[in-house]
Predict the structure.
Amino acid sequence: MAMPREKRYRWRRRVIGIVVAPAVVLACLSRPAILEDTWADVGVDLVAWLALATGAALRLWSTMYIGGRKSETVIAEGPYSLCRNPLYVGTFLLGLSLGLFLKSLTVVAAVSVGMLVYASATIPAEERFLNERFGDAYRAYCAKAPRFMPGLGRFHASETVEVNLRALRKELKAAVGWIAIPFLTEVVVHGRQQAWWPTLLRLP
């Protein structure tokens, strides 16, 4: 039995792009709120790197545990003992790092809205499916693990993990895009402070 393929599942991956892409364009056409080589610039970059590293690590870690097994058994160990949706938490942190590297509250807000819409369209359907498929076992897991906010005190894991190499390779390919985020945004942030850069707006 496969995961449900409702209409909202078909467009869920496009939602974040539809919301975030225009925000990124508008941010690129706006004057930077934080100038390069200031303490504020350094501080925001540190937070951005932390969000990027945590988000990437969480997604890779979660992929090692779930590896396409979501419709086969209740995954309740490793990152899934901390919360029920660590992949989504990791994705949010990666998107958040994009807004922080761009020094743009507009992009941070767009990422937040996009993830909210995405999660609202996806997670209830997933939970209905898992509840119907696994019954009491899944309900017991939900009673222990929160949807999003990780709790370190709940962590537990087995000594060995069976890794789906196909799923892991796919996630590692996506990681190339994550690694590019700080370098591409650094070029944009530097350009926004040059006289020749088109600055048509004043957005935070």
About this structure: The two ends are 47 Å apart (CA to CA). Residues 105-134 form the longest helix (30 residues). Residues 1-6 have pLDDT under 50 and may be disordered.
